[in-house]
Design brief:
By secondary structure, the chain is of the alpha/beta class. The protein has two domains: 340 residues, TIM Barrel (Alpha-Beta Barrel); 98 residues, Roll (CBS-domain), CATH 3.10.580.10. It contains 19 helices and 23 strands. Helix 1 packs parallel to helix 17, helix 8 runs parallel beside helix 9 and helix 10 runs parallel beside helix 12. The protein is elongated and about 90 Å long. The relative contact order is 0.16. The structure holds xanthosine-5'-monophosphate.
Length: 483
């Protein structure tokens, strides 16, 4: 037995001492960061792989905002794969079933279709969906008596059309559109039938609406997915990578375990550079170093700080989160493997402290569980909207998993569960974008207080001060009456 001399600290035990700053506005703070050794994010926020937090809707929202969502693993392999596929397909710039006209329709009829659906170009097809040409609004501009003229008389015929092949990536499509100064690119199958339509308008809209969106090489939104370390985890990992998962999170409560280290090695050997592996959770320098040495591309840090966690009560184990992050950060600097501060984030101030302590990103669970994009309905209690959150080691999560995967739990199985998490309600907080924008806005101001333009500068410049209970109380709203 050994007793460590130093104190374990968490977010509320410290404040960051304000430093001289060159930032004239928080907008000058650069929040770009490393999720893993090679995968970058535009904001340092990830949504937690919990079944009340991240499925496809949350992952889409997070990637659009410049972060990433990790789909939870309490699903059958097929369902988890389906969730990742939904994210990958969501930002598709291909209109798979575009409005069309036939060659023998009148120009007047085609114009009516354009007007009704607010579009300025229609692929022209025959009965078997073979592409015969394109009719653009410009083609119709100088047509006299459109009620008597046929589409085939004024369309641009197939032999003069530039087309793309089905499955073309957005980069390929953009290149073709640019090179030929086109606004619309029809896609065709091998037999010449229409497979879809890509328009410049859609590409520009998506780019301007989500300027920070994190995308893979083919232009699809980024997605992460969780896997375990036992049973079918290798097969699950392979299937998730096949549909384009960008990162896999090897998700176990006590990640500093020999079997986790073996699993990282096996995954690396099997999948090589196809995917980045995040491993965890750890709470120590040694744990982080061991996982990094085994090949993890990032390490997730946090044992027991989460809002729904009872690990520290049930097992007596854990490390207060700020100390855990500081310790893990030493190993991160030595190995070049980024760390994720996972759990216990309640405010933007907590994000700032976690990053200043050496994390590259934070993972948020309960904060995002209360948003529109988290799985599950909103519930009204006393007229106020709420959503459900549950720890992944709670009995409810175990039962939910059994129900979804069809692995029935017998009474004995249920008796045997020793939960390390609880179920609860969280207040409804609006959209994920609203929550994340508040977190990132506050974090940017926090960077400014530290005099840091980048996250790496933050690590160098941050100065923490331990505070007293009186100072903690002074830091909150105080001596006020309810309005
Ligand atoms: P927050 O505080 O953001 O934390 O809700 C999210 C993280 O909490 C962890 N987690 C658990 N830890 N028992 C635990 O001890 C659980 O049942 C449990 N469920 C989630 C997890 O690391 C998550 O990202």
């Amino acid at each position: 037995m050994k007793l460590l001399e130093h104190e374990g600290l968490t977010f509320d035990d410290v404040l960051l001492v304000p430093q001289r700053t060159d930032l004239a506005s928080r907008k000058q703070a650069n929040t770009e960061t490393d999720l893993t050794k090679t995968f970058k994010l535009q904001i340092p926020v990830i949504s937690a792989n919990m079944d009340t937090v991240t499925e496809s809707a949350m992952a889409i929202a997070m990637a659009r905002l410049g972060g990433i969502g990790i789909i939870h693993r309490y699903l059958s392999i097929e369902d988890e794969v389906r969730q990742v596929s939904k994210v990958k397909r969501s930002e598709s710039i291909v209109i798979e079933e575009p409005y069309t006209v036939t060659a023998d329709q009148t120009v007047e009829a085609a114009l009516a279709v354009m007007k009704r659906f607010g579009i300025r170009g229609l692929p022209v097809i025959d009965r078997k969906k073979k592409l015969l040409g394109m009719l653009t609004f410009r083609d119709t501009l100088f047509v006299e008596a459109p009620a008597r003229r046929k589409v085939k008389d004024v369309m641009t015929p197939r032999n003069k059309l530039v087309v793309g092949k089905k499955g073309a990536s957005s980069e390929q499509a953009i290149k073709i559109l640019e090179a030929n100064r086109l606004e619309k690119l029809p896609l065709v199958n091998g037999n010449g039938t229409l497979a879809g339509l890509i328009t410049v308008k859609d590409i520009i809209e998506k780019k301007t609406m989500y300027p920070k969106a994190i995308k893979d090489k083919s232009g699809h939104l980024a997605a992460g997915a969780a896997i375990g370390v036992k049973g079918d985890y290798l097969e699950r990992a392979q299937e998730l990578v096949k549909v384009g998962a960008d990162v896999l999170v090897l998700d176990i409560a006590h990640g500093h375990a020999s079997y986790a280290i073996e699993a990282i090695k096996k995954l690396k050997a099997r999948l090589g550079s196809k995917v980045q592996i995040i491993a965890g959770n750890t709470a120590t320098y040694e744990g982080t170093k061991d996982l990094a040495k085994a090949g993890a591309d990032a390490v997730k840090v946090g044992v027991g700080p989460g809002a729904t966690c009872t690990t520290r009560i049930v097992t007596g184990s854990g490390v207060p989160q700020l100390t855990a992050v500081m310790e893990a950060a030493r190993a991160a600097r030595e190995t070049g493997v980024p760390i994720i501060a996972d759990g216990g984030i309640r405010t933007s101030g907590d994000v700032t402290k976690a990053i200043a302590a050496g994390a590259s990103t934070v993972m948020a669970g309960s904060l995002l569980a209360g948003t529109e994009e988290s799985p599950g309905p909103t519930i009204s209690r006393d007229g106020v909207k709420h959503k459900v959150i549950r720890g992944m080691a709670s009995l409810g999560a175990a039962l939910g998993r059994a129900e979804r995967t069809g692995d029935e739990m017998e009474d004995d199985d249920i008796q045997g569960v020793v939960p390390e998490g609880v179920e609860a309600l969280v207040p409804f907080r609006g959209t994920a974008a609203e929550v994340v924008n508040q977190l990132v806005g506050g974090f940017c101001s926090g960077m400014s207080y530290c005099g840091a333009k980048t996250i790496k500068e933050m690590w160098q410049k941050a100065v923490f001060l331990k505070i007293s209970q009186a100072a903690y109380l002074e830091s909150r709203p105080h001596d006020l009456e309810k309005p």
